[in-house]
Amino acid sequence: MDAQWILKHQDLVPSVLLCFYDLVSDPTLATLCDNRLKTDLNNLRGLLSQSGYKTRLAVVLFSDQDTHSVDSVQERLEAIRRACAIDAKSLFLAPSSESPDELERMAENMLTTLYGVAIEYFRDLGRHSRKKKARGVVPQPTVPPTSGTSQTLSQAGWNVRYDFKSAMFAEYRLELGNALLSFEQAYENLLGPELLEAIPSWSPRWNEARFLADVIAVRCLRCLLWNGQHSAAARRWQSHRDRIAEFVDRRGRGISNYGWKAWEARWAIIMANLIERTAVSGFTPATMNLYLQPEKNVMGERLQPWEMLHHTGYWYHLAAKHLSARRNLAHAMSEDDRRPPSSSPASHVANNAFTYDTYMCPDPHDEYPLNGAGGVDHSRMIVDCLKRARSEFLKRHQFRFAAELSLECAKELALVRDWKRVVELLRSLWRDMSFRSEGWVAIAEDLSWALRSAAAAVGDADLIIAIDWELLGQNFTRRTNWHYDITRSLEGIAPKSKPSVHIEHGELLPFVSASFVFRDEEGKAGQSTRGQLAIKSNAQQGSAPVVLKSIEIEFSGSVGRVVLQHQAGAATEPRKHGSVALSAVSLTDAAEDGAKSEVENLDESNRKLTLRGNANLTLLPSQTTVFGVDIPLREAGETRAVSLKLSFESEAFDLQQSLYFGSGINSSNLWYISASSTKRIARAIPLSVRVLPRPPKLKIKAPAWKDQYYNDEPIQLEFEIVNDEADGALAKLDVDLFGEDTPVFSIEVVGQGAGDALPSSTVVNDESKLRGLSLGTIESSKALTVRLNVPPIERSNRYDLTMRVTYHLSTDPGTPIVQTALLQLNVVNPFEANYDLLPRVHPDPWPSMFDYNGVNGLSGGDDDGNDGSSGSGNAAHAASTALTNMSHKGISQAWCLVTRYASFASEDLRVVNVDIRVQTARTVRCFHTKQPGVLPLADEDRGRGRLIRPRTIVEAAFDIDARKSTLDDRSPSTLDVSFVIKWTRCHPDTSSSEVVVNTTTLPVPRFTLFGTEPRVLASVSHIPPNPPSLNKDNSSPRTPQLTVLHVIIENASAHFLTFGVSMEPSDEFAFSGPKQTTLNLLPVSRRSVTYRLLPLPRPPPPTPTPTTPSANKALPPTPATPGGGADGAGGTWIKPGLVVRDKYFQKVLRVIPTEGMKLDKDGGVLIWIPPDEEEGEARSGEKVEAAE
Amino acid sequence: MATAIPSIACLGVIGRNNNPLHVAIFPSYDPVTNNFAPVRTPLQFSLLLSSTLDVFELRARHNAATGVGLSGDFGLLHAVDERLAAYGFETNTGTKFVVLVDMRGRRIDGAIAAGLVDIKEKRLGAVAVGLREGEMKPVFKAMQTAYVKLLQNPFFDPDEHAPPAGHGGKKITSRKFADDMRRIGETWTPGVTNL
Known about the structure:
The complex is a heterodimer.
Chain A: H1 3-12, E1 16-23, H2 27-51, E2 56-63, H3 70-84, E3 91-95, H4 100-135, H5 155-172, H6 176-190, H7 204-227, H8 230-250, H9 258-278, H10 312-331, H11 335-338, H12 346-355, H13 364-367, H14 378-395, H15 399-415, H16 419-431, H17 434-438, H18 441-458, H19 461-471, E4 500-503, E5 512-518, E6 522-524, E7 528-537, E8 546-556, E9 561-566, E10 575-577, E11 580-585, E12 588-589, H20 596-601, E13 610-615, E14 618-619, E15 624-632, E16 637-649, E17 654-660, E18 670-672, E19 678-680, E20 688-692, E21 698-701, E22 709-710, E23 715-723, E24 729-738, E25 746-749, E26 762-764, E27 767-778, E28 783-790, E29 797-809, E30 817-828, E31 831-840, H21 852-856, H22 874-887, E32 892-903, E33 909-920, E34 924-930, E35 946-948, E36 953-964, E37 973-985, E38 998-1009, E39 1015-1023, E40 1042-1051, E41 1057-1064, E42 1069-1072, E43 1076-1081, E44 1085-1095, H23 1109-1113, E45 1132-1134, E46 1137-1142, E47 1147-1149, E48 1151-1153, E49 1157-1159, E50 1165-1169, H24 1175-1180
Parallel strand pairs in A: 1-2, 2-3, 4-17, 6-20, 9-13, 11-15, 22-30, 39-48
Antiparallel strand pairs in A: 5-7, 7-15, 8-9, 8-14, 8-16, 10-11, 12-13, 16-17, 16-20, 18-19, 21-23, 23-28, 24-27, 24-29, 25-28, 26-27, 29-30, 31-32, 32-36, 33-35, 33-37, 34-36, 37-38, 39-40, 40-44, 41-43, 41-46, 42-44, 45-50, 46-47, 49-50
Chain B: E1 4-14, E2 20-25, E3 28-30, E4 35-37, H1 42-66, E5 73-79, E6 84-90, E7 96-107, H2 108-113, H3 117-124, H4 137-152, H5 158-161, H6 175-187
Antiparallel strand pairs in B: 1-2, 1-7, 3-4, 5-6, 6-7
InterPro entries (chain A): Gryzun, TPC11
Domain Gryzun putative trafficking through Golgi (chain A): 501-1098, 1131-1170
Domain Trafficking protein particle complex subunit (chain A): 205-473
């Protein structure tokens, strides 16, 4: 039994024979045709039965008749069927007139029916072989065994045969489970002790048995894969391999020869093919599955990873590996073995037969012939496998694995010296391999060397140079016998033209790294800044130094580029220390020398500056070469070192390498102070420098600027604009004044013909601005004065003044330059004051209700007499009082306004005059007089007025005399006063005529006059002691000083009021007057009670009475108290126990003190007793006279 | 064949930028010469490790699409052939641990010497000496612990080894880490739960 048997059953012997006939409907011909048909069919049947096969016969009849006469047709069919003994199921009638769809459906039905018939057929066959096996006898050989085509079989052999056959039939029936079972049984039997074990390995039968085992195993795998038992399939694959290996090792020729490896490779390819052919659903590339999960029933078991079925790429890879192992083993064969049998001794041939496994592979002399001609092309097979594997991996995006396979492939091709394909394969891989960027240096290196050797063979100069350039790096392991000299790269290669290679940044791992550092973060246009370029060579130790031709540094921004050119004996010898060489390079503007014409062709605006310098550009291995350069900065903006281009030039080729700064590893911020010492530049981006605009040299000065300006004075601000530029400047001025309630100001350019109207500012939203005032051309080193006139400002405030001069030089009209000055204008109030309104006793009597003349005498006087009050002196006061009395008939009151004003200025001010402005209701007439001594007209210093130093307080008092117009008006009235200070600044230099007098008006809080409540005023006067000479009386030589106390009760109301006045005796003084009395007051009247007081002398206690201003200053009649200290001179305060009580309301009225008096803490009245000049005498022999 | 059990052939630590951080190679038992030797050259191991990155990428894409696999354990990445299989683990920060297991890396006597005899003998009766999915967990755990220890070293700058923006990075030079890797690779055998 061999493959022919399978061929017979699979392809040659049909299970069902399907015949097509026409069923003629013409009644005349019908019988004839039917009969012919019957004979034909019967002949067929006869032939079939003769063949010995039980092939079923099926017939399809195409009727050319319509279907309606079914009955007659049915009859005919029945007749045919019976005549030919055809199964009813196998006879079909196809009406001819059916549509294609119908026919299709019918054909499907037919197939289904026939399928059952076919299964039946194979089941019969299967049953037959099972029966035969069950019989358990070895059948007699049908042909004599000597023929060579057939061998006798043992019982076990027959069993294998039957099992195999029934398995095959089961497979045909698609009963895969059964088939698998039978196959396994056959397999086990075949490999069992009675068969394979029993066959000697030298016998050809041994290989046949192996072959059969392989066939069974393949069939098993197929069943498993069809069944979806992927892991079982993988396991089956492995177990077959293991068993055969074990067999071959034990019984055969061992597994360490090329034959076995060939079989292994074949076995792997078979698996890959099987997976492909069965089209395992999980392996379509779209699913991206690398392997399949195991089936459920083996999920829990311990599985070999390989038992998860992997996709075919892995299997091809495996095959490739075995193939290369095969090649290695084949190449390891001795020369004797490789001789063709004809030319080698017979004993050797026999020996070979035992040494080499030639199962399904050629003999040693064919495998690897001695003469090299012919033989097996291992490489082709390997490459073939690898390519197939690679395409599978690529389909599943396993690029790295694919790259690995490409590399293997390339190495394989390199062995057969197919350099061209190697270069093809590796070039793209080498250009953009992930290994390089991801740091798998070893892989990149391997690939590079592989490609280099290929490129050298092909003569691809560009590639060689680039690879050599990269391999110079120290990252790669050093090859011992390599020259590592870039200039010798192209040795032995003669390119047609001189190759020029350009390597972009990041394209490969360059052995040089570069960094650029600006020393300063900022620079100014027109100046230059220092930068350092550090180039570190990471070349292999011992490699030849690389001499660059030039280095180009590209900058963004206004700095164009810097080109360093190699000069062997550079002017400055670099300072060296260790592995660092530092040299300073002086740069020259290329535009200035020869290259000018070339530059001019370019667009002027695009022209970038090129600076050139010469330096020694030899890069020694692992040395850092530092170049210090001075870079002039031209325009404002950010400048950054962007990239670097290294150019290498030799006789054989050119090479350019671009590097970008700032990509991670390259960026360092070390500044080499000298070759041996560095410092770290602590900046985020040391690669860049910020270029500031050219500093303006025009200056704005404010020479007479003051810290404070005061309210109510016109402010003049003078500025000097000085041009320190080398050229004349055409300037414009913008002024902004910002703050609350900004005033409108005007500007005057001193020296220019000041026009009629000075330009003045506009006020928008608290901002007063003036724009674009042309200042004309200011010549170099000349100054221009601008005066700002600000009107008096009423409120203290703070303003920001911005002066901005925009100018451009006459030589460079395109570049505007801006100079600004920011000043703060403080406007403060120079004075502040507080006020006291003290009541006084009006000297004039109140008009009486009963005095007809007094009330009505002079009515209708002019009411506007108020106006003349400002300039009044004491004399005028008397006159006006008289006038008032006549025109105004109402009640009158006298007050004293005491103001204390302080200077809050920061410098001395001169007060020229102070005054108050009084405003009252129309019904009240009010006069005021300045008390003397308020303002000395001539100070000790020059000039008028009083000099007030900062933070000093000055007092000024004013008497106010108020009178109502009629007696009927009893309502309270208000008094609005403002305090006016006229002052000047102290200008010691200027003459007084120029001094501007400023007027500051301070508002005084509103006072209320003429309350309706009754009030009690106390006033005091002193009767000087009588000189003894005047005293004619003998009794008393001298009257002591008496104090007269008037208690005046004013009743401004319209009620009749009764007051009780009582005075308590005291040990401080004696008094005369009513001790207790009752006063009746008519409406709108006043009365007074008079006491005369005589203070009792007593040792003056050290009363710490402060000299309050009211006590001190408001005593005009008092002689000037020396030193201001009242106590020192002997004056005392006495407190009379005076009580005024409203009898009706039983309310104690407060006694209001006037001049020479004050209130104490309890609300009582204290009276000042001036010292007695002749106190010493008075004290000697005076007896105190008690009053009443 | 049943006398061989799996062992670790290579441990690889791969950085966030797919750059190799550390590679430790362990010898396997070679039945032909009867001694221990690595099954591949270092270059081949590099290639194998790098090829696992494909699988990491594939899985990451797949996981992102399906929203699974948050644990970081990628399990079996692929089996290179019937002997070598790669298992992978990815940390949250993108550092990848790869274990290449040689399915026939040790003789059974080696396992006996390692004191695993009773576990072994039971299993040897079974059909296949394979690996369960979970058996690599202790290895990854130990590797991660070692890596975390490394990170705790204040002188170890992770950004130096995998720059946040860019390519490549330095390898790990810590001897302690290398020792840890060596210990893990040498002591692991199937069934070990704690390393």
